[in-house]
Amino acid sequence: MLDIHLLKNFLNHPRQIVITTHHKPDGDAMGSSLGLYNYLIQKGHHVKVITPSDYPDFLHWLPNNKDVLIYTEQPEQAVQLCSAADLIFCLDFNSLSRINELGETVRVSAAKKIMIDHHLEPADFDDYRYWTTNVSSTAELVYRFIGTVMGEPELINKEIATCLYTGIMTDTGSFRFPTTTAEVHIIIADLIEKGAENWRVHQLVYDNFSENRVRFLGNCLLNKLEVLKEFNTSIISITKEELSQFQIETGDTEGIVNYALTIHEIRLAALIIERPDAVKLSVRSIGNFPANEICKKYFSGGGHRNASGGISHEPLETVISNFKSILPEYKHLLTQ
Fold first, then answer.
1. Single pTM value for the model
2. Has residue 94 got a pLDDT over 90?
3. Which domains, and CATH codes, for the chain?
């Protein structure tokens, strides 16, 4: 593993740097990536953010988003950049499988790999790791990396503050989750002091949907929501045909599972979507219920205790049935 002093010395001279993040990046993935990007370019490095896939339109306003390269759209250029890189920062993921085809490109690159992440059970592919699960988000870790590890808090400008605010806001559910500690509020206050416009960020992320997305949400809540009162669980399931009917685009399903969790006494909620390649699950819980355990044990996934995801190659109806069949095993936790 790289020593932090070696990393600091290495970054004292202009380098070729790639920043990448997980498949279908969310607010924390893009906020932390572009926050780090805006920091590194101030130091004179040649930097490129490469995402493994596209990401929601409501994140395209982030500062310097125009410089992001999407691997699936320009794979040859992405491979060239990774091959020529001195450093590759891996943000908001802990296994190369989370970046799909880009993972092998990163693995074979001679570049030093720097992991900055807050997910459980990191894989051993990195040369330097700034990792803990005891934070709100990867954006919070990037804030600490710049200010504490690198010792350059004065370089956090409005662009960086805006990106990091976005990452922390989205990964804490607008500061509602238990990871929103007193320290998080202190960091947020500092980011606002440095130029992040909290009201504008919230509007651009949460009040910036298409008409199709709003109508799709209405359909999900009216026609697709199933409440299993015996297990204090709710499920929303979506077919491929419904995705097509409402012309659903990347990011349009984000956050819908949280509506299912707002019902009185519900402790576990799942959004189960039939995608073209597989059935994807987003699972949320409250309190100490281990959503990540269900995803890891039964659906080849994982994540945080209260927010996790999984995948299955079974038919949609089979996945729904399998999910329901698991609930009796956890009834004592769901109904206590």
1. 0.91
2. yes
3. 4-206 (3.90.1640.10), 211-334 (3.10.310.30)
